Amino acid sequence: MTERDRSVGYGEVDKIRAWKRNAKGRGLRWQIQREIVAIGSKLPLTTSQMQDSMSLRRGLSHKKCSELLEELKRNKAMIQKMDPEVGYYWETSQLGVSIYLGGKQAAIPASIVEEAYTLKSVTDSEEA
Q: What domains, with CATH codes, occur in the chain?
């Protein structure tokens, strides 16, 4: 058992292993798109928040993240909605959940969504 296994907990380690096992044999682009869909399924984010999140997770440029978001929008995996208070934000469609997550939102490792929640709370506190 590694130090990370001890600090995270057994349930989370099993989720991370299953997450990686499910991606085996798939391309890196698909894995990145799956992470974008996973973040969008738990928390709707604006374009800049999504770009910042993926920049921290995978080192993607803002342009590349925008391209992936647009591709997911064309494939109907992500939906861009308008809110009068926030502006435009991204949300995962039911089709996106079934394609990229296999219909199981509960199988998303906490570390992926935790970063998005942290980023959202930071940007919300900066705006206030």
A: 3-119 (1.10.10.10)
